[in-house]
Specification:
The chain is an alpha+beta fold. 33% of the residues lie in helices and 31% in strands.
Length: 181
C-alpha cells in the first residue's frame, strides 16, 4: 500500500475530445435561409414594373445576405477540440472549417477560464484582438486559455474545460529518459 497518492500512475487515454455548442445560432441560420427563400421567390414570381435592374439587385442582395448569414452562422454553431499526444486540433462547425492545429511543443501552458463571453471578444466566431490574442468563441461559459511559447494566447470555449486543462497540462510535462512521464 502506498502512502502518497501522487506516486500512483494513472493510465492516460490517447485522445480527448470536447465540444461546445450554441443553439441560438440555429435561429440566425434560419434567418439566412429565409433571406435566400425571399431572393428565390423574387426571382421566380416577380411582377416588378420598376425595372430589371431593381429586381436583379433585390434578388442578388437577398441571396447574398442569406448565404452569408447561413454559412457564417453554421460555421460557428459548435466547436470541437481534440487533444492527442502530439497536438491540439480545433475545428468549427459541421464542415470543420476554420481549423487550427497547435503542436503541444508550442504550448507553454493551459489555464481554465471560468467565464468567456462573446462580448469580451467582439462576438461569436474566430476572433483576434491585439491585446487579448486569438479565440474561438461559440457560446458564453467556461473555456481554455493556451499560452504559446511565441508569446501569443489562444482561447477556446469548450464544455468540461477543467478536464481539458488537466489533460493538456499533463501532456506538457517533460518526458523522462526511457519514455516515462
Amino acid at each position: 500500500m502506498r502512502d502518497d497518492p501522487h506516486d500512483e500512475v494513472t493510465p492516460q487515454t490517447e485522445i480527448w475530445i470536447g465540444r461546445a455548442t450554441n443553439r441560438f445560432q440555429w435561429l440566425l441560420a434560419l434567418g439566412g435561409a429565409a433571406c435566400m427563400a425571399l431572393g428565390i421567390e423574387l426571382a421566380v414570381d416577380s411582377a416588378w414594373t420598376s425595372g430589371i435592374l431593381a429586381l436583379v439587385m433585390s434578388v442578388v442582395g437577398c441571396i447574398a445576405a442569406g448565404l452569408l448569414m447561413l454559412f457564417g452562422t453554421l460555421a460557428f454553431v459548435h466547436v470541437a477540440l481534440k487533444v492527442d499526444t502530439e497536438c491540439l486540433e480545433v475545428r468549427c462547425g459541421h464542415i470543420g472549417v476554420p481549423r487550427r492545429r497547435i503542436p503541444l511543443d508550442s504550448v507553454a501552458g493551459a489555464e481554465f477560464v471560468p467565464h468567456v463571453t462573446p462580448r469580451h471578444w467582439g462576438g461569436w466566431g474566430y476572433r483576434w484582438r491585439p491585446e487579448k490574442g486569438t479565440a474561438v468563441v461559440v457560446r458564453r461559459g467556461e473555456g481554455i486559455l493556451l499560452s504559446l511559447w511565441d508569446g501569443h494566447t489562444f482561447t477556446i470555449t469548450v464544455d468540461d474545460a477543467e478536464a481539458a486543462v488537466r489533460i493538456i497540462t499533463d501532456r506538457l510535462k517533460p518526458r523522462t529518459p526511457g519514455g516515462g512521464r
